[in-house]
Amino acid sequence: MSQWLRGLLPPLEWLRGYNRNALASDTLAAVIVTIMLIPQSLAYALLAGLPAEMGLYASILPLLAYAIFGSSRTLSVGPVAVVSLMTATAVGKVAATGSLGYASAAIAMALLSGAMLIGMGLLRFGYLANLLSHPVVSGFITASGIIIALSQLRHILGIQAHGETLPTLISTLWMQLWAFNGVTLITGTAALIFLFWVRSGLAPLLCRVGFSASAAGMLAKAGPVLVIIVTTLASIALDYQTLGVALVGTVPRGLPAFSIPTMDFALWSELAVSALLISVIGFVESVSVGKTLAAKRRQRVDANQELVALGAANVASAVSGGFPVTGGFSRSVVNFDAGAQTQLASVLTAGGIAGAALLLTPVLYFLPKATLAATIIVAVTSLIDFSLIKLAWRYSRTDFIAVMVTILSTLFFGVELGVLCGILASISLHLHKTSQPHIAIVGEVPGTEHFRNINRHDVITYPSIVSLRIDESLYFANAGYMESAIYAVIAERDERLKHIILQCTAVNAIDLSALEALEAVTQRLKEQGIMLHLSEVKGPVMDALERTDFLEHLSGQVFLSQHQACEALKPVTES
Amino acid sequence: MSQWLRGLLPPLEWLRGYNRNALASDTLAAVIVTIMLIPQSLAYALLAGLPAEMGLYASILPLLAYAIFGSSRTLSVGPVAVVSLMTATAVGKVAATGSLGYASAAIAMALLSGAMLIGMGLLRFGYLANLLSHPVVSGFITASGIIIALSQLRHILGIQAHGETLPTLISTLWMQLWAFNGVTLITGTAALIFLFWVRSGLAPLLCRVGFSASAAGMLAKAGPVLVIIVTTLASIALDYQTLGVALVGTVPRGLPAFSIPTMDFALWSELAVSALLISVIGFVESVSVGKTLAAKRRQRVDANQELVALGAANVASAVSGGFPVTGGFSRSVVNFDAGAQTQLASVLTAGGIAGAALLLTPVLYFLPKATLAATIIVAVTSLIDFSLIKLAWRYSRTDFIAVMVTILSTLFFGVELGVLCGILASISLHLHKTSQPHIAIVGEVPGTEHFRNINRHDVITYPSIVSLRIDESLYFANAGYMESAIYAVIAERDERLKHIILQCTAVNAIDLSALEALEAVTQRLKEQGIMLHLSEVKGPVMDALERTDFLEHLSGQVFLSQHQACEALKPVTES
User: Fold this and answer.
1) Is residue B20 within 8 angstroms of chain A, CB to CB?
2) Using CA of residue A61, residue A64, residue A66, residue A68, what is the dihedral sign?
């Protein structure tokens, strides 16, 4: 079997050593993840503004597709909070919530996003994920978490309120606050309190009554299911429907019908930019979870293979009536902690969800939406993390600005502009920082061959020589700055100055713009009777320079070391 | 007088030493530039799709405004080829050519662009010009030159043909080729041949008959005026109008009326993106001319002051019925070569153009458009320069891709998308290049304290130590690559490996994303019993690291030099 085929279909790799022990582990993990996934799938469909059953549909075939192509053994794909919110935002622009067009636009979004991910994978664009810096991803997820939590408050209050940004959410919530439904509020608040307690207080309690720590942790994952059962029973017993409590309502029974989404090119072009954003965010979220988990077991995740696998999962979601999916953090961690060894756990989970779609849908009719909203709120509060702001503030102003721009633009302009602003901000800040490199005038430390900043050390200098160390690769964004900096140094010196030596220790590249600038500098210095020399030029930089006629125009020489340069150029009388 | 005021109003500086000699030089330059500017102004108005008089209007007040605020003493502002083409493209999207709305949209564009430039100047955004790399600017100007020359062929042929991209221009020219007007074609071709000859053959001829080289060069600048006079006389004598030759037609006599452009916010928002592009391109073109000329006389040009001055020039153009202007290359060089000492030359030039608007407009009626088209074609052929492609091909693949993307996207998608694609390509390529930094495994050169690449040099290494030199600052785009590279190195070693030392000579910064990656590396190596050390960390990087708890988590130490690190960590038995 070729290496290529095993790369394309990772199961060929892990199925070889598969045994009964692995099957037992995978089965246990599948049971736990299924129990956790049922309420989550329903809730994220609600968050995306879609019928509850679409959440189940998005949790069956996509898991199988990822199991076939995915390079992570423990990643669990399906609807996730941030991607569901982005779907709601994008689809809301082309169709009214609740309309038939809304659901089919969400399906089209999954198809489009899937096709884009597969395309990016085949083109080996996996490295593009690197353009999302840590402050941007972290800030974006925190801000999205706040928006998601606020958007779900309306279900807890039982009011109609919409909005996708902090100001619209707060103002619509505020205006309708007093129209709240008492029973809904009590149910939702009780669910919230219980779920928060489950997360912090249940596992320790179970430990104290004799469960092992891991068993207690697993049992605590069933908290959301327990809340669903209790509130559904309450809903039936107290006839919530007549009390004005919003219920999930009719959910079609059975498995999703396969269908090829309609080829609506006009719709696709409207959704294209949003689909690209969802693809990139989904990919980055998924691959970072996948890498973290793989690292713990010394396995490897291949970014390009992940693009293909997530693409296949989204196409699978689209053809089975689901919406955009990706690898989720919480579900994957649960899967991993429950002992999943391979993607067979996900295959079994898909079977579990399919069983739920066949058997449980009639009882979902009575489930209050407030319960689902409570599970969402509890889930997303773990996404909200302000510690990075503090760290960035202490560490570097650039990172601090990037995280603040991302958080504020996401909160105030919505998720799509938010992530775009974040990416633009982090790239611009990086370019800005490298456009003004640190340039030190250096001199020789007496008795050594080392050159150090003249402002920090007692060093030997000569009136006829200025040695400059440029602490950055020279490229278009800093070529002009470098040029001006050299002229500024000359302006401070008198006519004794005859040599400028650029120490290129930290210059890893010189691009064409910087080369033009260096030629301009050479020319101008020559007119003033000053020679320009280079020292410690790195091999690849020298190779590139030798392919041009720059070295012929250079008034001075290229020295192997700064020490040799000074020895050769220093005035004989001063030596 | 405060330094601040002299920075804001550069005339306060140069007026102090003003004398009769300077006045004589400035007057001569003004005469020559005026003669050159009259046909150019009319031609660029034609290129922008505007009535000829708007070209004159754009060459009066803007020159005065720049003279007051500009930091270059010899820059000459007014309509220029590339900006006129960009204006035609942008305004053509919101109004039909020749309509009243078209002219007022062009005026609004000047106002908007002026406001943006002033705003950017006050915010000190001058460094943003650096984002346009040399390959992008050069490729963009070459491609624009091709498009401009092709677009003017229709006036030489006397046909109707439109288009703003290479394919549309060629196809419309081809389809109507045989509808050419014979008299127009003869006039235009004769003008073209004469102008090309003037550029190359006239000056040497004048030298041979006894003129000094500089006088011959000056006289050759009058070539376009001569062509205008001759073809206008031919047009009157042979009654071109009845022969179907397109003439400039009625040009209102007199000076422009001041008016405040209408406050049409809907129009402004439609033009905003184009106005930003025009502003940036105009600024970059102007400031590069200004810097080149200033350098020749050891003067300085301040980028932020230039933004304000060009903004003022554009606002002045808008209130006097003109269109977007910037500092032009050819006119500024002529001004400089003619001996202009200060901006008073431009003030006098403005007077000259105003005189032309008062006196010459009646005769312009008979001027064939083919003559103006010929002056444009001859002017822009000097912009077309393919030598950079060859240089970039030899020098670096990155620069080659950037220049080709810019040229091809400008030719095939038009000027606006062209410049955007160019900027995006050069930034993406830079990020891509730095996202995969060169990482060398190094060892000590025997008998020295120097460390070199083990693949290139015979060096001392130990099985328990791997020294890695990372030749790039660590930031979000390469954090993941660095992490993977370290893991790949470990995977190749056996269990004797105990220490990884990162030599940070070329690491000028570590951003938060890279810090997170380093923490992940530390953690993972610790689990495998390997310690991570740093050496030769630069001062500012160390300062930032000390503001976090990274150094507390670091399993190893931070050494001042790679040599000290190896001395401290090498096994005693092996030493």
Assistant:
1) no
2) negative
| CA nearest neighbour of B114 among B316, B329, B322 | B316
Residues in chain A with CB shorter than 8 Å from the CB of B456 are: 539
DSSP B177: G
Q: Would you say A248 and A365 are in contact if contact means Cβ atoms under 8 Å apart? A: yes
**Residue A412: its H or E element:** helix A397-413
* CB spacing of A471 vs B513 below 8 angstroms: no
Whole-Å CA distances, A493 to A465, A487, A496, A525, B113 = 10, 10, 8, 13, 40
CATH superfamily of B439-569: STAS domain (3.30.750.24)
- Which CATH superfamily, name and number, covers A439-574? STAS domain (3.30.750.24)
Say what the pLDDT of residue A2 is: 66
The 8-class DSSP code of residue A178 comes to G
- Which segment of A561-565, B14-18, B397-401 scores lowest on mean pLDDT? B14-18
Q: Quick check: pTM over 0.90?
A: no
Q: A343 near A77, Cβ under 8 Å?
A: no
Q: Does B505 touch chain A (CB under 8 A)?
A: yes
> How far apart are alpha carbons B175 and B1 in whole angstroms?
65
Delimit the domains of chain A by residue range.
19-408, 439-574
- Residue found under tokens 């690209």: A276
Q: Which of residues 233-262 of B touch A (CB under 8 A)?
A: none
Residues of A in Cβ contact (< 8 Å) with B548 = 391, 394-395
- Give CA angle at A243 (A241, A245), nearest 5°: 60
pLDDT in tens, B58-106: 999 999 999 999 988 889 999 998 999 999 989 988 888 778 889 989 9
Burial class of B387 by CB neighbour count within 10 A (0 to 12, 13 to 18, 19+): exposed
The whole-angstrom separation of Cα A321 and Cα B199 is 70
Assign 3-class secondary structure to B196-224. Answer: HHHHHHHHHHHHHCCCCHHHHHHHHCCHH
B22-36 residue pLDDT tens = 888 888 889 888 888
B146 contacts B418 by C-beta, under 8 angstroms:
no
Interface of B with A in 539-568 (CB under 8 A): 539-540, 544, 547-548
The DSSP string of B252-277 is --SPPPP-PPP--HHHHHHHHHHHHH
Q: What is the mean pLDDT of residues A562-572?
A: 85
Once rounded to an integer, what is the mean pLDDT over residues B2-29? 80
Residue B573, pLDDT score: 59
Share above pLDDT 90 across residues of chain A, in percent, rounded to a whole number: 28
Cα–Cα distance list, A481 to A361, A436, A470, B395 (Å)? 66, 6, 11, 22
Cβ contact B195:B187 at 8 Å: no
Q: Extract the tokens encoding B552.
A: 């507390």
What DSSP element (H or E) covers B559?
strand B558-559
**Of A306, A395, A562, which to mutate for an interface test with B (greatest number of B Cβ within 10 Å)?**
A395
- Cβ atoms of A402 and A136 closer than 8 Å: yes
A510 touches A545 (CB < 8 A): yes
Scan for tokens 């009136």, then name that residue: A463
**Strand B465-470 to B451-453 pairing:** unpaired
Taking alpha carbons only, the member of B365, B372, B360, B362 closest to residue B228 is B372
For residues B130 and B329, what is the distance between their CA atoms, to the nearest angstrom?
19
| DSSP per-residue codes, A442-503 | EEEPTTSS-EEETTTS--B-BTTEEEEEE-S-B-HHHHHHHHHHHHHHHHHS-TT--EEEEE
Give the Cα separation of A449 and A528 in Å (integer). 30
Instruction: Select from A543, A568, A565 the least CA-distant residue to A469.
Output: A565
